[in-house]
Amino acid sequence: MTAIRPAVEAKGVSRIFQGAGQDAVKALDNVSVSIRENEFFTLLGPSGCGKTTLLRLIAGFDYPTDGEILLHGQDIAPLPPFKRPVNTVFQSYALFPHMTVAENIGFGLKMLGKPKAEIAARVDAMLKLVHMQEQRNRRTSQISGGQQQRVALARALAPQPKVLLLDEPLSALDYKLRKEMQIELKRLQHETGITFIFVTHDQEEALTMSDRIAVMSSGNILQVGTPWDVYDRPAERFVADFIGETNFLTGTIESAGNGHARIVLSSGARICATAAKDFQLGSMATLMVRPEHARLVKGTGDLAGTIETIVYFGTDTHIHVRLDGGEAFIVRQQNSRCANCGFERGDKVGIQIGDDAAQLLKD
Amino acid sequence: MASAKEIADKAERDDIQSRWLLSTPALLIVFLAALGPLLIVVVYSFLTPGNYGDVKWQFSTNAWVSVLLERDVFDDTLSLAGAHLSIFWRSVSLSAMTTILTLIFGFPTAYFIATRPEHRRDIWLFLITIPFWTNLLIRTFAMQEVLRNDGIVNWVLQALGITDHPVQLMYTNFAVLAGMVYVFLPLMVLPLYASMEKIDFRLVEAGYDLYATRLQVLRRIIIPLVTPGIVAGSILVFIPSLGAYVTPRVLGGGTNLMIGNLIELQFGQGRNWPLGAALSIALMTIVMVALLFYVRNTTRSDGSHG
Ligand SMILES: Nc1ncnc2c1ncn2[C@@H]1O[C@H](COP(=O)(O)OP(=O)(O)O)[C@@H](O)[C@H]1O
Ligand SMILES: [Mg+2]
């Protein structure tokens, strides 16, 4: 894996915005990340965590306060944006209102001074790729949001950049169209072999589309990994909380070693959890359990509690349990043919936690 | 019973009726204040001049003939009125130059203001409008101070050793041009700013992203988007330039007249009101033709602003 040459590499990149007063905003704080060639790489994080700032630094619209950015091993600091082999799909699309769909798509090639025939052929190919042949002579104000999104995509792909930056390109679309475009984008990335750096605040979108995800929070990258990594082996509490639904339980570490630790909860229940690093005996720690990794049982389980609410979701059911220690805990059960599988509100139940399903987190 | 269509039709009729009613005051003002005097001017241009100004109610086309032609004193033959033509030509060319120069100076100024942080723009706009606070005449005399033989420009030129005797700047076309550019610059900057302010500057970034250099971004993105402002500013500068009176009078002296001065002359010393009236109408016609031509050209060459 390490032999693959990175397409984009950030080394200790910081960007500090000097505010109007004394307060400076650290939009990026010493960020280092390495993005591989032909990879669908996603920057995931809540709004304001610095995703757009990082993209703008790569595109060249803004410059880092500190650190350097390499493109295929080459420092790109001296290159103005119009000399970087990188194209952007803007969050707001930023289509040129005074040009037609075809003129928008051909703009980059025209600026590169390509011959007319080549531009025309490439624009045709792009229109076909995004299924917009019929709208080629429309103004950008005369097409729908989804179509504008596709034009923005085609415009950025037309000059065949080495790296494509996409800043929340699907966030303005409604649910169904977004699902369609997710598949479309994945297909385009596959067909073109271009490195995609995709920004989103939607964890589900990140999980379904990415080869790897970088989870960001207030100017830092907390974890980089495959969707499985960040979902199933979150490095810290923020990641576990931001991606998917999670149960957190706090207790005291009773014994530790061999990558495992035993925690005593306030109710006296003992749980064995995997521990990525060594934790100090007797200290407080938080563990997480995904709702689908726990199971309700009629008798005694690892935990005990009372059912508070049952929420039916079609494919599965969420059962909210109040543990004897007072904590809330959610169990997700896949629905089989029985409706509640014999559980009712107010039932005293046990919760069985799967092997290695509980995980100790660093806060 | 009224059908849905009848009800809708009636609503539309009522709507049209109330719209007419509401616009009556505006229409009255237009008719009385604009068309009325214009009609009087047209009528006057077909009358005979009185001995001490004013007009005699006697139909004559002499005024119109002498807009462009002059009658030889001895043999009554008509020839082109060279003096009038050169004044027309000076007016049109100086006004066109003024428009172009204010555009050249005003564009970067407006761009500068539009790219400032939002809370600072008001201050810059305010600074741009300061000249409006002073009387036009005073501003023009200030310009005279700058341009006269022992004025600032000549003082600097001599201090730098570029010339050893004062350069004659006053009472030249250059002085008139400089004065008009100075006076009309804000009228160009403000509409330019108004349309630049509306530009989504992410479009500029998108341009850079797609390999456009600074010059290409200016030509392909900014200028097309600012075209409405360029048109409005040019009109706002060109029209009053063409009719300028004070500036050519003060800075151009008696030799560099423009149409405005010529018209004034007819109503004053010339005592030829019909000719003054005919010249006014001619000026208006030039303006309208120029406007029509300009607007059609700018909107066609850039048909995107439909
Ligand atoms: N030009 C700027 N001036 C000042 N602060 C900025 C500027 N751009 C971004 N920021 C701040 O930097 C932080 C990160 O912004 P951004 O990268 O846009 O977040 P995201 O795209 O993840 O929502 C935010 O707190 C934002 O307010
Ligand atoms: Mg953003």
TrEMBL record, chain A:
The complex is composed of two ATP-binding proteins (PotA), two transmembrane proteins (PotB and PotC) and a solute-binding protein (PotD). It holds the Pfam family ABC_tran. The keyword Membrane applies. GO terms for cellular component: ATP-binding cassette (ABC) transporter complex. One of its GO terms (molecular function) is ATP binding. InterPro entries: AAA+_ATPase, ABC_SmlMolc_Importer, ABC_transporter-like_ATP-bd, ABC_transporter-like_CS, Mo/tungstate-bd_C_term_dom, NA-bd_OB-fold, P-loop_NTPase, PotA-like. Residues 8-243 form the ABC transporter domain. Its EC number is 7.6.2.11. Keywords: ATP-binding, Cell membrane, Membrane, Nucleotide-binding, Translocase, Transport. It is an enzyme of class 7 (translocase). Belongs to the ABC transporter superfamily. Spermidine/putrescine importer (TC 3.A.1.11.1) family. The gene is potA. This is Spermidine/putrescine import ATP-binding protein PotA. Part of the ABC transporter complex PotABCD involved in spermidine/putrescine import. Responsible for energy coupling to the transport system. It catalyses: ATP + H2O + polyamine-[polyamine-binding protein]Side 1 = ADP + phosphate + polyamineSide 2 + [polyamine-binding protein]Side 1.
UniProtKB/TrEMBL annotation, chain B:
This is Binding-protein-dependent transport systems inner membrane component. It comes from the Bacteria. It is a multi-pass membrane protein. Residues 88-294 form the ABC transmembrane type-1 domain. Belongs to the binding-protein-dependent transport system permease family. CysTW subfamily. The chain crosses the membrane at residues 20-47, 87-111, 123-142, 174-194, 221-246, 275-295. InterPro entries: MetI-like, MetI-like_sf. GO terms for biological process: transmembrane transport. Gene3D superfamilies: MetI-like. PROSITE patterns: ABC_TM1. Keywords: Cell membrane, Membrane, Transmembrane, Transmembrane helix, Transport. It comes from Mesorhizobium amorphae CCNWGS0123. SUPFAM superfamilies: MetI-like (SSF161098). It is found in: Cell membrane. One of its GO terms (cellular component) is plasma membrane. Coiled coil: none annotated.
